[in-house]
Amino acid sequence: MHNAVSLAKKLIEEAHSPDGYNIGINCGAAAGQTVLHFHCHVIPRYAGGMNNPRGGVRDVIPNKGKY
Q1: Per-residue pLDDT tens for 10-41?
Q2: 41 phi and psi, to 5 degrees?
Q3: CB neighbours (10 Å) of residue 56?
Q4: Whole-model pTM above 0.85?
């Protein structure tokens, strides 16, 4: 998994030059999993992209926090 995430980051960096990333995996319905197979989110983040990035992946897409 580390190699897959590293490759995803490399490809994203070549095209978009983000300042950081959130890496997310939801395991089980209680954790918010809605797609019932393994998948990992590699989310590029940019300085100033959120008022307070301390929430991590919560509310990563503005105005979409309540799915």
Answers
A1: 999 999 999 999 998 989 988 888 889 998 99
A2: -95, 125
A3: 12
A4: no
Tokens, residue 34: 């809605």
Specify the number of domains making up the chain. 1
In a domain? residue 16:
yes
**Domain assignment of residue 59, yes or no:** no
Query: What domain range is 27 assigned to?
Result: 2-50
Q: And the tokens for 26?
A: 């939801």
Distance between CA atoms of residues 63 and 27, nearest Å: 24
Cα–Cα distance measured from residue 37 to residue 19, given in angstroms and rounded to the nearest whole number? 29
Tokens of 17: 């030059």
Is residue 30 helix, strand or coil?
Answer: helix
The closest alpha carbon to 48, from 21, 19, 10, belongs to: 19
Alpha-carbon torsion (3, 24, 43, 22), positive or negative? negative
